Amino acid sequence: MKSLLFGLITVLAFGLSSSVMAQGNKGGTPEERAQKQTEQMKTSLQLDEEQSAKVAELNLKYIKKRNHVRKDNSGDKEGMRAAMSQLNKERNAEFKEVLTEEQYQKFLKREEAMKKKRAQGKGKGMKK
């Protein structure tokens, strides 16, 4: 009975620590997240190799910048929102230089759809 209880406690502790670690890393390292984002864009926008390389650099650059904004503005939602908005404008301007007009329009539509999806997800779950 004691070994069963000990085993159960061990499993629960491992599960909780894994959950906390996953929440702290938000989808992997910046490099992993940039690679995943680039692969999705490569497929959905049909990027060539040159575009893919440039998009990968931009994705990594802006993921790192977003991480800094989150860190620097923790607790200041309005400051973070303004900084993120500015980063998005800068990122979009750089993407516009890399993508064709058709690809860029697809990119903007995809961004808008994701924005709506995130907005729908707000308010669900536990309140803080």
Short description:
The chain is mainly alpha-helical.
From the helix content, strand content and strand pairing, which structural class follows? Answer: mainly alpha
Order of helices and strands: HHHHH
Cα shape: globular
- Total strands: 0
Largest sheet: none
Number of helices: 5
CA gyration radius, whole angstroms: 19 Å
Helix content estimate:
over 70%
Distance between the amino and carboxyl termini:
38 Å
Q: Which stretches are low in confidence, meaning pLDDT under 50 for 5 or more residues running? A: 16-23
General description of the model:
The structure is a single chain. Helix 2 (30-45) crosses helix 3 (49-72) and helix 3 (49-72) runs antiparallel to helix 4. Residues 16-23 have low confidence and may be disordered. This protein starts with a helix and ends in a 7-residue tail after the last helix. The chain is built from five helices and no strands. Helix content is 84%, strand content 0%. The protein is globular. It has a domain at 27-103. By secondary structure, the protein is an all-alpha fold.
